[in-house]
Amino acid sequence: MTMSIATEVTAHNWAFAVFLVGAVGLCCFMLLGGFLLGGRARARHKNTPFESGIEAVGTARLRLSAKYYLVAMFFVIFDVEALYLYAWSVSIREAGWIGFIEAAIFIFILLAGLVYLVRIGALEWTPERSRRLRKAGPIAENQRHQQ
Questions:
Q1: Fewest C-beta in 10 Å: which of 54, 76, 98, 147?
Q2: Is the C-alpha dihedral spanning 68, 74, 79, 80 positive or negative?
Q3: 64-147: which CATH number, 3.40.190.10, 1.20.58.1610, 1.20.5.170, 3.90.800.10?
């Protein structure tokens, strides 16, 4: 006994509709349950941030350098690439020499990217003024103070 194509499509769409209604219903149930069962207490310090036994001091609005975000993006990129290399290392026997050559090219591209980042100074945290003083050395620093 075979089903016609129209019956198959209808059965497939009904299954998706039941899944969708179930998922939305489950989400609504969880949100409504949290609202009904949640705490209702109101107090002066109820909504103040409190972490590790220390009360908050100052504001949470910190100005961070764009380099912080740049280094964070570099970390995520290289971390994901390390994950790909881990997956490759698990299947090294199945990949064979072709897989080894592809991984070597991948590592070479990573290394070239890292060298590029170091050469343009993207990983430098110190300001330009501090780098000039560091290159000049302690003798130039002593002479500057004597003047």
A1: 147
A2: positive
A3: 1.20.58.1610
The distance in angstroms from the start CA to the end CA of the chain is 101
**Nearest alpha-carbon partner for 104 in 92, 118, 115, 94:** 92
**Contact indicator for 71, 103 with CB cutoff of 8 Å:** no
Which uninterrupted H or E stretch holds 67? helix 66-90
CA angle 28, 34, 37 (to 5 degrees): 130
Question: Residue 3: helix, strand or coil by DSSP?
Answer: coil
| Model pTM above 0.70 | no
Q: What is the pLDDT of residues 31-73, one digit of tens each?
A: 999 999 887 777 776 766 666 767 767 777 777 777 778 778 8
Our CA angle for 77, 79, 84, nearest 5°, is 95
Q: Are 114 and 77 in contact (CB under 8 A)?
A: no
